[in-house]
Amino acid sequence: MRQKEHIHKKIIEASKKGDNRARYELYGLYSKAMFNICYRMMNNREEAEDMLQEAFTQAFTKLESFRYESNFGSWLKRIVVNTCINAINKRKVDLTYCEEIYDYDSEEENNEYEPEYTIANITQAMEQLPEGGRMIFSLYLLEGYDHGEIAQILKIKESTSKTQFMRAKRRVVELLKQTHGDAMDKI
């Protein structure tokens, strides 16, 4: 593991000095994972590709500020997420957040049975979510942000993040029930 970190550090340092081969290598190491984040957030391949390029351009511009306090992937992921959020905000799309107070802890969940689904099934259901719900669902469930972090990133209340996540989750379950029928009745 240390050798891998050492190799990445050399590549990052060379990239900081403007070495285009090193930058290309960094792009090769991280582009696929970062594209997946862009695609989940933008829900459109062309827009995801644009956001990926914009995020890497920003990352290479800001590379001097990377201080190894976190791993490079986490640092880059934050740039990617912020790039996508900024693009969505520029479109001035109504994210249809509900500002009502929602008691997240009182939500009953039945986790006795969880059928296996492919990532493709869940991704397909996610693509049908409204943009705001899809973004929160993706940030929370797939990217690992907590509701406090999501609230800060999107400039919303934490309760709004929780509400939208629960609604998105319910909608994904509904969509999976529609396509998988009886298997979902046990959830």
UniProtKB/TrEMBL annotation:
Residues 121-171 form the RNA polymerase sigma factor 70 region 4 type domain. InterPro entries: RNA_pol_sigma-70-like, RNA_pol_sigma-70_dom, RNA_pol_sigma70_r2, RNA_pol_sigma70_r4_t2, RNA_pol_sigma_r2, RNA_pol_sigma_r3/r4-like, WH-like_DNA-bd_sf. One of its GO terms (molecular function) is DNA binding. Pfam families: Sigma70_r2, Sigma70_r4_2. Keywords: DNA-binding, Sigma factor, Transcription, Transcription regulation. Residues 26-92 form the RNA polymerase sigma-70 region domain. One of its GO terms (biological process) is DNA-templated transcription initiation. Belongs to the sigma-70 factor family. ECF subfamily. NCBIfam families: sigma70-ECF. This is RNA polymerase. It comes from Draconibacterium sediminis.
